[in-house]
Amino acid sequence: MPPEHWALIVPIAIITVALIERRFGSTVSGVLQACPIVAAPLLAVVATCHDEKFLQSVAAYAIFGTVPWFVFVLVYDIGSDTLSNNWLTLAALSAWLLCAIIIRVQLFWVLAIASPFLSAGLWTLLWTRCHRRLNALSSRRAARPIIPLIALGTALAYTVAYVAGSIGDGWSGILTTFPTTAFVFLRSSMKHYGAVGVHEHIGGLVLGIPALLAFLVATASLLLVLPKWTALGGGVLVAVAVAKIALTKVDHMEKA
3-class secondary structure for the chain? Predict the structure, then answer.
């Protein structure tokens, strides 16, 4: 089986998240969308074709790739009140691409210093915007059409998986953190529920993104001392633990 077929995990994940959204609401769904349900299979694609050293470099660049992720979500959050769905999609994707290009052409050591501060600052900005809204909004239990989500999400993930590892460690890492599931659900929310649906989802994404960061940091660190598949498994376990904390936070906010 070609290594990019790891991306077939993505439609299963999308179906699962959509069903969970119908039962527990869009904020819980947003938390899960921010988890490494795409990043982990894509790193598995790289692990299938390359050694631990290359995989560690990809995981490190993926950490830096969370900065375009934050920019993408921030543009969606700000633009959803004024832009149409198509223009909002174009603006968010353009912002992600511009930020990714800027990151890719910078020196590695400069990124190593600046990236954590950029991510922390963007997360704080998003949390400040979303925290009060989370307490005011009801978590929408959406029964959105699933087939378009599966089609778009699978196409995106399979395309990224097809080129992962063959375009260098930098771009492979940055593409690993492309917000595939967040993008397809945000676009669907904007189409079916408007800005309110987008805001509900982003509230969950902000709570869930630490799970993705924990996965990437843990994987890159464990690759220093463990085989690649063991390191990936350890990163997934760390992400699950962090996601559990985020879901507990959502539960407490809904009960408050």
Answer: CCHHHHHHHHHHHHHHHHHHHHHHCHHHHHHHHHCCCCHHHHHHHHHHHCCHHHHHHHHHHHHHCHHHHHHHHHHHHHHCCCCCHHHHHHHHHHHHHHHHHHHHHCCHHHHHHHHHHHHHHHHHHHHHHHHHHHHHCCCCCCCCCCHHHHHHHHHHHHHHHHHCCCCCHHHHHHHHCCCHHHHHHHHHHHHHHHHHHHHHHHHHHHHHHHHHHHHHHHHHHHCCCCCHHHHHHHHHHHHHHHHHHHHHHHHHHHHC
**C-alpha closest to that of 245 among 9, 11, 31, 22:** 31
Tokens of 166: 């063959």
Q: Within a 10 A sphere around the Cβ of 153, how many other Cβ atoms? A: 24
Structural domain of 39 = 3-255
C-alpha 116, offset from chain centre? 16
Residue 1's Cα: distance from chain center in Å? 26
CA–CA distances in Å: residue 224 to residues 19, 56, 210: 38, 8, 22
* Listed range (23-27, 56-60, 158-162, 203-207) with the worst mean pLDDT: 158-162
Residue 252 has pLDDT above 50, yes or no: yes
The number of distinct structural domains making up the chain is 1
